[in-house]
């Protein structure tokens, strides 16, 4: 791509960096929230601000890696939180950049855990050993084991066709008319997003509570 676009200067920026972890809200220390915000949110913002002058000059493209998990969460609320924040940052940036001819796109992959290895499986013992004494007094090891099994089963179902996400990124960088959002996900995952976007919150809560209970 660099050789292809070298004649028109700095063309594209892809904000792809991201980290993920599993855990209910009270299980994670504040330091973890700060680290995730720094990498997943502020990291993309820092990079964008650094290259914005060049992107405006050459009317380039900016691509952000989000996730369908920006719409709902199933045990990894900290990751969901950061992706929802990036979505809103992109919405503002996309509108502001139109007058400069800069295109902003968001990639929203479904579960590609087996392709990206962004989230390694977690054992109940690992989770339990990191819990504060207050959290250990509220939860028990059996519950933690159930949650770990649930989350690890989701990871094991992840698609191995990571090229689908890469293809969306390439299209966002090279298409004459790139999309604002590329949702690269299975039908079941898209259905969850549809329910989350169009149905009352109580309906989505019921759907997710059922999924978590299985």
From TrEMBL:
UniProt KW keywords: Membrane, Transmembrane, Transmembrane helix
Xref: Pfam families: adh_short
Classification via InterPro entries: NAD(P)-bd_dom_sf, SDR_fam
Membrane-crossing segments per the record: 58-79, 191-212
PANTHER family: D-BETA-HYDROXYBUTYRATE DEHYDROGENASE, MITOCHONDRIAL, SHORT-CHAIN DEHYDROGENASE/REDUCTASE FAMILY 9C
Family: Belongs to the short-chain dehydrogenases/reductases (SDR) family.
Name of protein: BDH protein
């Amino acid at each position: 791509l660099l050789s292809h676009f070298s004649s028109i200067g700095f063309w594209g920026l892809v904000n792809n960096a991201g980290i993920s972890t599993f855990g209910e809200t009270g299980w994670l220390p504040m330091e973890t929230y700060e680290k995730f915000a720094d990498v997943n949110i502020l990291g993309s913002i820092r990079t964008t601000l650094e290259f914005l002058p060049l992107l405006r000059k050459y009317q380039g493209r900016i691509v952000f890696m989000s996730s369908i998990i920006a719409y709902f969460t199933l045990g990894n609320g900290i990751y969901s939180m950061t992706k929802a924040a990036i979505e809103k940052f992109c919405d503002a940036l996309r509108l502001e950049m139109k007058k400069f001819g800069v295109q902003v796109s968001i990639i929203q992959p479904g579960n590609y855990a087996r392709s990206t290895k962004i989230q390694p499986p977690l054992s109940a013992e690992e989770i339990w050993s990191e819990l504060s004494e207050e959290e250990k007094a509220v939860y028990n090891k059996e519950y933690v084991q159930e949650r770990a099994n649930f989350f690890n089963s989701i990871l094991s179902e992840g698609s191995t066709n990571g090229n689908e996400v890469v293809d969306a990124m390439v299209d966002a960088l090279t298409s004459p008319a790139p999309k604002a959002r590329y949702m690269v996900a299975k039908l079941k995952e898209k259905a969850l997003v549809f329910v989350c976007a169009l149905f009352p919150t109580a309906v989505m809560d019921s759907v997710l509570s059922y999924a978590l209970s299985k």
